């Protein structure tokens, strides 16, 4: 299995995060201060303030989250 890091898919909305959570897709937690990835894994829990991955909570206001964006169908 290959791991491909894609930094252009930022998760911002609850729909994006919920999409990754429902499908069990892993997300990447990126620290702006240290400029490196600090966590990678499936979402255990999330709300408007935090995302929990592997028993660690990450404030949504302090970190960047990367994963698969939920794309709306266009008509």
Structural description of this entry:
There is one protein chain. The protein has 1 helix and 5 strands. By secondary structure, it is mainly beta. It has one domain: SH3 type barrels (Roll). Strands 4-3-2-1-5 form a 5-stranded antiparallel β-sheet. A hairpin with a 2-residue loop joins β3 and β4. The N and C termini lie far apart (35 Å). The relative contact order is 0.28.
CATH class: Mainly Beta
Structural class: mainly beta
Tally of individual helices: 1
Strand order of the largest sheet: 4-3-2-1-5
Biggest β-sheet strands, sense, barrel: 5 strands, antiparallel
Average pLDDT figure: 85
Using only C-alpha atoms, the radius of gyration works out to 12 Å
Shape: globular
CATH architecture descriptor name:
Roll
The secondary-structure element order is: HEEEEE
Sum this structure up briefly.
The protein has 75 residues and is mainly β. Helices cover 13% and strands 39% of the residues.
Task: Annotate the secondary structure layout.
Blueprint: H1 14-23, E1 26-31, E2 36-46, E3 50-53, E4 56-59, E5 63-66
Antiparallel strand pairs: 1-2, 1-5, 2-3, 3-4
């Amino acid at each position: 299995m290959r791991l491909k890091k894609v930094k252009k898919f930022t998760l911002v909305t609850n729909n994006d995060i919920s999409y990754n959570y429902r499908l069990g897709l892993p997300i990447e937690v990126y620290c702006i201060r240290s400029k490196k990835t600090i966590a990678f894994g499936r979402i255990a829990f999330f709300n408007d303030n935090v995302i929990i991955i592997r028993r660690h909570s990450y404030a949504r206001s302090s970190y960047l989250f990367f994963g698969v964006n939920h794309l709306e169908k266009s008509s």
